[in-house]
Amino acid sequence: MADPTQPAPPGAGLAGLGVSQGRAAGPVVRMAPPPVLPDPRQVADPGAEAAMVVKALESVTADLRQRAATAARDARGGDNAAPAGDDAAEILDALAMIADDPMLREDAEAAVHGGLDAPHALDTAFTHHRDTLAALGGYLAERAADLDDLKHRAIAACLGLPMPGIPAPGHPYVLVAEDLSPADTAGLGTDVVALVTEKGGPTSHTAILARGRGLPAVVACAGITALADGTVISVDGKTGQIGVGLTDEAVAELRRNDREERDRLAKSSGPGRTADGHPVKLLLNIGSAADLRPGAEGVGLFRTEFLFLDRKQAPSFEEQVAAYAEVFARAEMVVVRTLDAGTDKPLPFLGLPPEPNPALGIRGLRVDRVLPDVLDTQLDAIAEAARMTSADAWVMAPMVTTPAEAAAFARRARARGLTRVGAMVEVPAAALLADRLLEEVDFLSIGTNDLSQYTFAADRQHPGLADLLDPWQPALLKLIAFCADAGRAAGKPVGVCGEAAGDPQLAPVLVGLGVTSLSMAAVCVPSVREELSRHALEDCRKLAAQAR
Predict the structure, then answer these.
(1) C or N: which end of the chain has fewer Cβ atoms within 10 Å?
(2) Which residue has the higher pLDDT, 310 or 478?
(3) What is the pLDDT of residues 151-172, one digit of tens each?
(4) Dihedral angle at the C-alpha atoms of 496, 497, 502, 505, nearest 10 degrees?
């Protein structure tokens, strides 16, 4: 008998990159197109046109700040708070800062005085700033889409049109768009059951906020915007599969199954264990205290750079101490990653110059080569926050490549009283010398996202190379095994903190390879815990051998 939750007719599906697990179904509702620029007109009064530019930018800024305040208020709303409310507020505030940027306003005003009317002056200024970001590639290229959204909002305000935003059809639906801006994603209502975009990548704001809300999401899905509004589709946020042409009965069945599965997993609790009691710590990946959730055994990856992505001035020692202490006070153990910054994931206050190939340039621990004071201040702040809270604070450096780098980092961290010092394994050189690294540090944490990228020479943002970035690739598993074997020989823990750690099917394989902890988005913890509980350690080892 055919499964009624599968799409009909067979073979009618689309596929993209699954970035937030879960399954949902519903009718497609597409985002409204951006405002269309009218034909250029003669500028009779440049002063009046410049005033229109300023008013439009102020309107966008005010709207975003109001929405940020609403998101922050919702996040403080107790049991009914939106899980990603604080993230949404921070993102909306950051967008408001961009819209309020004096350089952007000055560029638009200069375009007016160069002869353009207000809408075309805004288009020119935003496009210039966007092209600058896109040319830098990597993380900055993804942020270029944010400027597109702000441009559309500003032009709509200038033309007296409604601001572009999320549709409100009055019923549950799957939101489909070419791309989603942070402002759009942060403003999603409860009637949105899933997200699918034609563009985007796994580190986009869409992916981050969707995971925070537990909302199924698929990005880089070619052809999705060609579907007509009202087309009923299914969305699998884990596999990236989109089923087209579901019946009403199939939709109801899929929703019922998903609801029952979520309810069942919500009852999951306790530490990570295999069926025969072998312990596997289940930890969280977080960007701030707002990401902390019950049900995990601590934090396996505190991405400290998320606190400072949009800062134009370096955060002070006192600011950093406060941010770290807030997390330390609320978690059993915290593994802090020092700033993972560079020209592919920029921190403006660092002032790093553009590079022709950012992924192979000054990033992660390598920033210390040019700005050593940044790491010194951060280590001082982490140590002080740990002392204030009596936290079980671990610290690790990103992009460690050689044993010498690991040793130098460990000396500086231990000199400040930090006793659990580790290194991230994100490049093959570090994996191949894992035993040497563990002579210098106390633990390793494998970042499978970057380790895949560097192992297979495949840009982790490229949707056309998803098969090479599959964490089931035997070459990647072999590198993970090198690290785990080294950890077992040294008697030191080796964890995984990349997206692979949150894959329930892969978790037993990683444990079978010898990994001692898995760190993931909070929404993934229950399903990983349950899957591990179904396998004895020896079964995990057999699965690992098969996968390799």
Answers:
(1) N
(2) 478
(3) 998 999 999 887 777 777 878 9
(4) -20
- CATH architecture of the domain with range 46-159: Orthogonal Bundle (1.10)
**Contact call for residues 318 and 359 (beta carbons, < 8 A):** no
Active site residue 497: yes
Q: How do beta strands 192-197 and 173-177 pair? A: parallel
524 is catalytic: no
**According to the model, what pLDDT value does residue 96 have?**
87
Residue 252's Cβ-count burial label (10 Å; 0-12, 13-18, 19+) is middle
Mean pLDDT of 513-528: 92
Q: Which of 158, 221, 483, 497 is catalytic?
A: 497
What the block records as the tokens of 478 is 């072999």
- Whole-number Å distance between alpha carbons of 203 and 456: 19
Q: Which of 129, 152, 205, 535 is catalytic?
A: 205
Cα–Cα nearest to 201, from 259, 156, 137: 137
Average pLDDT, the chain: 86
Residues ≥6 apart with Cβ < 8 Å to 423: 396, 397, 400, 405, 406, 409, 430, 437, 440, 441, 444, 445
Query: pLDDT tens, 61-108?
Result: 998 888 788 777 766 654 444 445 566 777 778 888 888 988 889 999
Q: How much of the chain is helix, strand and coil, in % rounded to 5?
A: 50, 15, 35
CA atoms in the 13 A half-sphere facing the CB of 208 = 21
Which CATH number describes the domain made up of 268-547?
3.20.20.60
Give the pLDDT confidence score for residue 465 in this predicted structure: 74
Lookup: tokens for 334: 């915290």
CATH 3.20.20.60 spans which residues of the chain? 268-547
Contact 348, 310 (CB under 8 A): yes
Q: How far apart are CA 232 and CA 167, in angstroms?
A: 17
CA 73 to chain centre: 23
Does domain 14-32+165-265 match CATH 3.30.1330.30?
Answer: no
Report pLDDT digits (tens) over 399-442: 999 999 999 999 999 999 999 999 999 999 999 999 999 999 99
**What number is the average pLDDT over the span 499-505?**
86
**pLDDT more than 90, % of the chain:** 51
Q: In the chain, which segments carry CATH 3.50.30.10?
A: 14-32+165-265
As annotated, the residues of the chain forming the CATH 1.10.274.10 domain(s) are 46-159
Which token pair is 384? 């002080």
238 has which bridge partners? none
